[in-house]
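Components:
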Amino acid sequence: MKLYDVYPLFDINIVKGKGCHVWDEKGEEYLDLYGGHAVISIGHAHPHYVEMISNQVAQLGFYSNSVINKLQQEVADRLGELSGYDDYQFFLINSGAEANENALKLASFYNGRTRVLVQEKAFHGRTSLAVEATHNPKIIAPINANGHVTYLPMNNFSAWEAELAKGDVCAVMIECIQGVGGIRLVTPEFMKGLRELCDKYDTVLICDEIQCGYGRSGKFFAHQHTGIRPDIITVAKGIGNGFPMGGVLISPKFTPVYGQLGTTFGGNHLACAAAIAVLDVMKQEGLVENAAKVGAYLMEELKKFPQIKEVRGQGLMIGMEFEEPIKDIRRNLLFEQKVFTGVSGTNVIRLLPPLCLSMEEATEFLKRFKEVL
Ligand SMILES: Cc1ncc(COP(=O)(O)O)c(C=O)c1O
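Structure:
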């Protein structure tokens, strides 16, 4: 059977990882400034992570959500403490798109409405309503184009105010740092204004922290740079350091109802073991603080390169925009300098390294980057 060919691939087979490095099948070592698309949070093959998952699978890999699973509460306790949201409720699923589907579903159950506002260039996933909320007509199938979503310019407060004032908006969904959209940041004023309007019109404010959250921005959540608290926060990617997992943090104003939400695999024992290990390591090794420190250093140094038109970002979520397409720079970084990076569109290189990236590794990246410019 052939694989369904949806990804343009680099001819590299990665077989091993450790910290911020990966190796291909020929034994070639690469510096990982991409983290497998912002997924590797605590580093590849962290010993605590390996031990927790290995022990758990030897004990019990899975049982259903019809019985108590104390590991879920352990994840929630640790996450509440580390993120500052211990008064919120937590629902576990398997991916980012699923987290956003459930967030929007909750919002609609809450206020009975069906309209959603998102930013231009938003990316919220590839399923049903999540893909409709993604500002890319090429990936929205006719069956998903149901007219629920209005795309609005980021930080243009009056445009959002005009829509919210209609009083029929179910939810506003925001990436405080847009990933796929090119590492663009919301302003604190914009978010404070949105918070007020959402309260006024009983609209649910959702922050999609799937890429920018979980320590990546140098605070636990990217919206914590703006001084607001959303009603719902969605997480995935870094939560399991590669174990497929997503989560929804839900404000106390939502009352759970049996049967409204559910999942077979979400919050299973193995996934929880992975998530607990991630939060342990983030706390013990101060990875949120590390992301802030190493990210600030990288941004400062990158701003000195005259070849880069603009450097944007926060913590270890950094975009470098060039006047010209960056395809060759990225290829040369990968094949000549052995460095993995990401992209946004044609002209932006996106850095999403594991949060344990050291100052030495950051300096090494800058050295190799200089070689290809
Ligand atoms: C901001 C954001 N939301 C949602 C998603 C979808 O997550 P998943 O691919 O796990 O469904 C992504 C994935 O890139 C993302 O970056």
